[in-house]
Amino acid sequence: MSRMFCVLFAVVGAMLVAAGAHAEGYVSRVLNYPVPGGVAVVALGQDGQAPQVSYNKHPVLVMRDSDQQWIAVVGIGLKALPGSQTLKVSTERGSRNLAFTVGTKKYREQRITLKNKSQVNPDPEQLKRYEREFAAQTKAYAQFRDVLPSNVVLDRPVEGGRLSSPFGLRRFFNGEERNPHSGLDFAVPAGTRVKAPADGVVTIVDDYFFNGKTIFIDHGNGLVTMYCHLSAFDVVVGQSVKRGQLIGRVGSTGRATGPHLHWNVSLNNERVDPAIFIGAFQP
């Protein structure tokens, strides 16, 4: 009897473990890569009302996962230190702190030689232009439109092409270190169609010093995407776009050594690895 009981206990235990593994929601399984520059998907429970969540004083995307659990989809900045991080969670019953853990990830280096030296060290007028453009982008990233994104597992903005420069690269232009690569590059020919990876509202259509022809789309709840080095625009500021809609075409404008699309994804005002959202993340 004792042996039979042990076997039965082991079988039931295995079934419970399997059930627990499958209980995790779809978004949690697909997007949860809690490293610097990654995404943490944090379970919040199943209360009727959506909790309000903030991280580093910025509001966080909260949604129901496929298992009906409320989750916080948290963007983690590249400068975040590994270890315990804290969310502030507010419900009708009050506020509490909720901890989650950030792991480690090592990013590679990239060295680029540019013939146009002003794109490494801009002159005073160019620097003023860049500062104006940077301020406009900073404002766009900080928006938190109270609309849930149509989808958080995103479509690729271009078809085909290899992923060239990955997110997080330490970049050296003409031997001088600059900010890490804040997006993901797609090596595709000039003129390739660029499509919206989710529904949204266009917040920027402009030609920038470093980024070249640039589009920003606000998808709601702090999820913002950016598209750089375009050759043409097919949208205007304030326009609503649908998932899969043409927004522009690939080019090599701005600080670019050849045709490609530079794609940024931002969550709660933190630039995160776009590869996570298209199933191409490399731990």
Automatic annotation (TrEMBL):
Pfam families: Peptidase_M23 (PF01551), Peptidase_M23_N (PF18421). This is Peptidase M23-like protein. Keywords: Signal. Residues 1-23 form the signal peptide. GO terms for molecular function: metalloendopeptidase activity. Residues 32-105 form the Peptidase family M23 N-terminal domain. Residues 180-274 form the M23ase beta-sheet core domain. SUPFAM superfamilies: Duplicated hybrid motif (SSF51261). It comes from the Bacteria.
